[in-house]
Amino acid sequence: MKQFRAWFVALLLVGGFAIAPSVSATNQADQEIIATLAAFHAASTNGDIEAMKRLTLGGPKTLAIGTSPDEKFVGYDAVIGWWQGLFDFLGSVGYPNGGLPVTPAATPLQVGHSGSVGWIAAEATWNFANGDTPFRISLVLRKEHGRWKILQQHFSVGISNEDLPL
């Protein structure tokens, strides 16, 4: 029985850490990637399309995937157009500066890089006028001219496995 209890406790501890560990930046590149995510959240919160333009990598391979099934945007112009449309809509329904307020988690789930390519995954909360919605975000970045630029952005709102139509 003691062995079973020890095994069970070990499984709980390992399982608990494996669910959603948070990381901290271990080097300058990771810190820069985390700062880019913070600037991205600030641009969203403030409805700052000029910041979105600066943070987003130009070109035809830039990609944004939103939470709605039809939110798939390929190319810099399409991605920036999506953000501009979102900011315009939110402004028309009373959000200050058209911004979508975001409260980020304290630390990302994962951050890393290999050469000029970086990635980050994090959790955050959208603060809508009628309630908060937790979401997940992942970004793929490329470093150009000394700055990390967002090549790919993906948002998801989790649902429990029990809610899937299995």
Short key terms for the protein model shown above:
166 residues; disordered N terminus; 30% strand; 4 helices
Assign the structural class, choosing from mainly alpha, mainly beta, alpha/beta, alpha+beta, or little secondary structure: alpha+beta
Number of helices: 4
- CATH class category name: Alpha Beta
The main pleated sheet reads as: 7 strands, mixed
- Please state roughly what percent of the residues sit in beta strands, choosing from under 5%, 5-15%, 15-25%, 25-35%, 35-45% or over 45%: 25-35%
Short description:
By secondary structure, the chain is of the alpha+beta class. The chain contains 4 helices and 7 strands. Strands 1, 2, 3, 4, 5, 6 and 7 form a 7-stranded mixed beta sheet that branches.
Could you walk me through the main structural features you see in this protein, from its secondary elements to its overall organization?
- The protein has 166 residues and is α+β, with helices and mostly antiparallel strands.
- The chain has one domain: Nuclear Transport Factor 2, Chain: A (Roll).
- It is 37% helix and 30% strand.
- Strands 1, 2, 3, 4, 5, 6 and 7 form a 7-stranded mixed sheet that branches.
- A hairpin with a 6-residue loop joins strand 1 (63-65) and strand 2.
- Helix 2 (28-46) runs antiparallel to helix 3 (49-55).
- The chain is globular and about 40 Å long.
- The two termini are 36 Å apart.
